[in-house]
User: Which sequence fits this backbone?
């Protein structure tokens, strides 16, 4: 399909708004957990975490997404709400003390953590469940009047390895209908559409090969009428395709940088307004090139 320019949107956050479309925004990932799949334990204290956030901002990140609980495949026991907040709230406060203008997102599916994080200064709630795991989340976000990212997830992380496979032509339809349902839930609860961004949820309940048809047809999510965020950074399905170059085994996390940039650039050319990444500087540079291509359409 020929490249097409992205639709433009004004994304309304808690205290400000962002223009989405003219250029790609880069969201830096900050996992303050001991067990995340790619960087667990590296930033699991507030000082290290805040320092890394400031580094990502210096590298060109527009947003920082802070998560206190790993949702890696096969994770069975959720942490408590108290533990999640113990991890993330000091980090939010520390970042904003150093950079009061930093735009922060809280990666949580719990309404109580969303409320606490927004009260601490977060502008955005990024819910990986798309408002499906905590029935209080839709109205909580509406009352907070914050920006919202609704991601598509198929089942819980403990179930992902046992989910029945999807046919190539089923993946996009499933994601599209799921996101449409999440969007309707959000609006019904009082979240204004300009506050909502949608995320197809690469790797979340999609087996290795199911992610590629989704990426190939990501542009069709444009019909939902909301901006798109894409998070492909270091995903295991990228490593699996690289297996022939790594002795027949999936490329380890630290060997997925080039694949990440390729997939991220593809997502931008397929309509993503925001990309969520671990390595900010390469993504910023890739986005500049992809944006220049889209400007030439």
Assistant:
């Amino acid at each position: 399909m020929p490249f097409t320019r992205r639709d433009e949107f004004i994304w309304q956050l808690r205290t400000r708004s962002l223009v989405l479309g003219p250029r790609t925004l880069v969201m830096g990932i900050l996992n303050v957990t001991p067990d995340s799949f790619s960087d667990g334990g590296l930033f699991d204290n507030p000082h290290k975490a805040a320092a890394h956030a400031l580094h990502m901002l210096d590298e060109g990140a527009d947003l920082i997404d802070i998560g206190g609980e790993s949702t890696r495949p096969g994770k069975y026991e959720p942490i408590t709400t108290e533990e999640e907040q113990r991890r993330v709230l000091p980090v939010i406060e520390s970042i904003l003390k150093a950079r009061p203008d930093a735009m922060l997102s809280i990666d949580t599916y719990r309404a109580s953590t969303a409320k606490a994080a927004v009260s601490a200064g977060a502008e955005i709630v990024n819910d990986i469940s798309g408002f499906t795991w905590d029935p209080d989340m839709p109205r909580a976000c509406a009352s907070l009047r914050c920006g919202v990212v609704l991601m598509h997830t198929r089942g819980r992380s403990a179930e992902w390895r046992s989910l029945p496979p999807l046919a190539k032509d089923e993946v996009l339809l499933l994601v599209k209908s799921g996101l449409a349902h999440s969007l309707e839930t959000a609006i019904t609860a009082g979240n204004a559409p300009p506050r909502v961004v949608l995320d197809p949820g690469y790797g979340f309940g999609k087996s290795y090969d199911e992610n590629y048809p989704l990426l190939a047809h990501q542009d069709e999510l444009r019909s939902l009428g909301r901006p798109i965020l894409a998070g492909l950074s270091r995903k295991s399905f990228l490593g699996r395709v690289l297996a022939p170059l790594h002795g027949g085994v999936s490329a380890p996390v630290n060997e997925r940088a080039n694949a990440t940039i390729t997939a991220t650039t593809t997502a931008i050319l397929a309509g993503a307004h925001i990309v969520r990444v671990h390595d900010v500087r390469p993504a910023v540079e890739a986005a500049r090139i992809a944006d220049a291509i889209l400007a030439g359409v």
About this structure: Strands lie at 9-12, 17-20, 25-31, 63-67, 104-107, 124-127, 147-151, 196-199, 229-230, 274-277. The chain has a mean pLDDT of 94. The domain at 20-295 is CATH 3.20.20.20 (TIM Barrel). The chain has one domain: 20-295.
